[in-house]
Amino acid sequence: MIDVSIIYVNYNTVSLLTDSIDSVLVKTVGVTYEILVVDNNSVDNSQQILLQKYADKIQYIALPANIGFGKANNEAIKIASGRNILLLNPDTILMNNAVKVLSDYLDHNLDVGVCCGNLYTKELEPTFSHHKYLPSLITELDILFHSPLKSIFKNLQHNYSDYPMEVGFVSGANFMTRKSILNEVGLFDADFFMYYEETELLVRIRKKGYTFYNVPSAKIVHLEGQSFELKEHITFLMLNSRNIFYRKAYGSLHICCCNIVNLATIISRLILFRLLNKNDKYCYWQKRLKLFVEAMKTN
Fold it and tell me: Total structural domains in the chain?
């Protein structure tokens, strides 16, 4: 058995994916690994480009349709040979030997079920890497009251120390766990198409008594969009998956409370940005309110 199976899910992101794979090949030493790419029926010539560039350096799994993030990962996990499983987003670039750092940490800390590294923007500024809590009513209240002051609470989303930190939730952009744990708790829930599938998996892993840690010596660039832009389809998927997660993890009463707080967040932002005459942000939250209502109807 090799040390790490590195899994990517690709959907029309081949230009980003090649940069990420290149960083793995250059930065990863001292650990045995394989790279598996699951393609969700891309139309950007991904298969030809990847196989021509990497040949036998990757395993390419072509799917006949876009089945979503979690289910696509499941296809790779089923055939993965690694003792540890690292899920990487195509828009990540390793800054150092992060694969070995994370794998060694899991190997030496058997009570830890999932670990992640520190994420940075393309300008190498700290960005969201983890959260103190799993999504719940507590995090909804945190967004309502702390989000406008989030620069004061940086330690909730990024580890500024040199030491591993226990966290409640890790970013799915770099998510390492043991394959034995996945054999124990099961794979990603097929009810999720995109978003919150790794969160629901974390709940099951936590119920088995495992902890989650951020390991800051593993450093990764995450090229996720930083602009204040609302992509309606993506936002709707996120809100819909959020409702599915809350229902599965906590039940109907909890989701009702979370939705009330979420609605309060939206209304408070609408009032705030109207008073500040910030029309772009006011329009953002107007659209967010519309999508929130649509997601409620769906669930």
Answer: 2
Beta bridge partners of 82: 2
Q: Are residues 122 and 258 in the same domain?
A: no
Same domain membership, residue 218 and residue 238:
no
- pLDDT (mean) for 159-182: 93
What's the whole-number average pLDDT of the chain? 90
Q: How confident is the model at residue 152 (pLDDT cuts 50, 70, 90)?
A: very low
Q: How far is CA 214 from CA 23, 205, 287, in A?
A: 21, 16, 34
Q: Cα–Cα distance between 193 and 181 in angstroms, integer?
A: 22
Position 256: which residue type? C
State pLDDT tens for residues 202-228: 999 999 999 999 999 999 999 974 333
248-255 long-range contacts (CB < 8 A, ≥24 apart) are 248/189, 248/191, 248/200, 248/203, 249/134, 249/136, 249/199, 249/200, 249/203, 250/136, 254/136, 254/137
Looking at the structure, do residues 243 and 210 belong to the same domain, yes or no?
no
Q: Is the pLDDT of residue 278 over 70?
A: yes
Residues whose CB is less than 8 angstroms from the CB of residue 230 and which lie 6 or more positions away in sequence, other chains included: 284, 287, 288
**By three-state DSSP, how is residue 277 classified?**
coil
Are 191 and 248 contained in the same domain?
A: no
The answer to whether residue 13 sits within a structural domain is: yes
Contact by Cβ (8 Å): 89, 116: no
Kindly report the CATH number assigned to the domain that includes residue 104. Answer: 3.90.550.10
Q: Specify whether 20 is located in the same domain as 40.
A: yes
Closest CA to 32 of 105, 82, 77, 93: 82
User: What residue numbers bound the domain in which 245 lies?
Assistant: 232-298
Residue 227 lies in a domain: no
Residue 59 reports pLDDT greater than 60: yes
Note whether 171 and 75 are same-domain residues.
yes
pLDDT in tens, 194-207: 889 999 999 999 99
